Every structure is written in C-alpha cells, then in structure tokens.
UniProtKB/TrEMBL annotation:
Tagged with keyword Hydrolase: yes
Recorded superkingdom: Bacteria
Taxonomic placement: Bacteria, Bacillati, Actinomycetota, Actinomycetes, Pseudonocardiales
SUPFAM superfamilies associated with the record: FomD-like
Designated name of the protein: DUF402 domain-containing protein
UniProt entry keywords in alphabetical sequence: Hydrolase
InterPro entries per UniProt: DUF402 (IPR007295), FomD-like_sf (IPR035930), Ntdp-like (IPR050212)
GO molecular function: hydrolase activity
Domain DUF402: 52-171
Region (Disordered) residue spans: 169-213
C-alpha cells in the first residue's frame, strides 16, 4: 500500500510505500522504516524546501524525485475520516522517541492506498504528553501562496487542538500503545509500485526525513 500526498491542483507530490499491519477499512496502521525508497519532491531549481527562504517555499514549482525516507522509522495510524495521521518515531536503534502528528486533508482511498493533502501545520507530542505546534510560520505563508485556504487551516488547527487534548490526558494514541513496537527483522522494506520511479531525475537526499509538503 502507498500513501500519496496530493497538491491542491490535483498533482501528486510525495509517495510513501507502507507495510500494512492492520486495516479495518477505516483506520490503517502501517510501517515505514528508515531507508525505504520513496518518491520525494524538490523545488524545480534543485533545492529542498528547507534550503529555500520561507517566502519562496510554496511559490516555486516542485518536481518529484527518487529519494529515501531518512533518519526515523515511523509507525503510522491513518484514519480515513480524520484530518491528521499520528506517526510514532523510532530512532536507528529502534527506540521510540516521540509522536509526530501530520495534519492532513483526507481525500479517501484509491486502488493503491490512501490519498491526503499535507496540511503544512503539524503537532509534536513528547513522551510525557506535552505538545507544541510545528511549522506555524510555513502554514501562514502557504495560505498567502494559495497552497491552503484559511478555512482548511482553521479545520487543521481545530484538529491539532483535538490531538493536543488527547495528549494532555494521556489518551490513545498517546497512552504508550505501540511505543514498544518492534518490526520483524525479516520484513523487507516496503516497495513502491513498479515503474513509479522511472523517468525521475536522481536527486536522493541525505538530510532529515522529508516533509510531504
């Protein structure tokens, strides 16, 4: 299965292959280990998002590139009707570090997996349940550039507040569930659909795990 991140114009940005661990038709639990090949994205001039000044990040066209999921392995809970997905982060030694809540606009499923629009604004939840917003500055710039609407951001912020309240109470998924997760060492890395990387310019990165932006 893959998770595809769409842009508002309908084009597809990043594509992440996932190993499905559980799926009841509404909630998907899946695994993406560090080092897995993905379809990433770069600015058309070759820079990563982080390398561009804030006022340029959502105005310069982007192109898909072959890449790898870097640094942290992630266990992901993706609910079809929720404007977020919860990612458990694990370091190179397999130790749980924290939760990262990717705020997203859900677009349903397709034959290959799930479709989402990355909401730019995110939430970081520490092991003790404290939480904070991430990328608030990018979210405002994304609105100015037409990447998100104000109404979408308001809905995403409300979702972040809901997630924060769960974290403060230590409620699922922030109650310790799956923080001891260990993948079977015999599992191969998830695979992208055949041919998806064909024709893309090689520009794999070595930096931190790429955001779906």
């Amino acid at each position: 299965m893959v998770e595809r991140f769409h842009r508002p114009d309908g084009s597809i940005g990043q594509v992440h292959p996932l190993r499905v661990l559980a799926d009841d038709g509404r909630v998907l639990l899946a695994w993406l280990p560090a080092g897995t090949p993905i379809v990433g994205s770069r600015l058309v001039d070759g820079r990563s998002m982080a390398e561009a000044p804030l006022d340029q990040r959502f105005r310069i066209p982007r192109v898909p590139v072959p890449d790898f999921w870097h640094r942290t392995s992630t266990l992901r809970r993706i609910a079809d009707d929720e404007w977020s997905s919860v990612w458990w982060f694990f370091d190179a030694k397999g130790r749980f570090t924290n939760w990262y809540v990717n705020l997203e606009v859900p677009l349903g499923r397709n034959a290959l997996g799930v479709d989402r629009i990355d909401g730019v604004l995110d939430v970081v939840v520490d092991r003790d349940g404290t939480w904070r917003w991430d990328d608030e500055d990018e979210a405002e710039v994304a609105i100015d550039a037409g990447r998100l609407t104000r109404e979408q951001l308001d809905r995403l912020r409300a979702e972040g507040e809901r997630i924060g309240a769960l974290a403060e109470r230590g409620a699922y998924p922030f109650d310790g569930t799956d923080t001891d997760f260990r993948p079977d060492p015999a599992w191969p890395a998830p695979q992208l659909p055949p041919g998806l990387l064909a024709g893309l310019s090689p520009r794999s990165g070595t930096g931190p795990a790429p955001a779906p932006r």
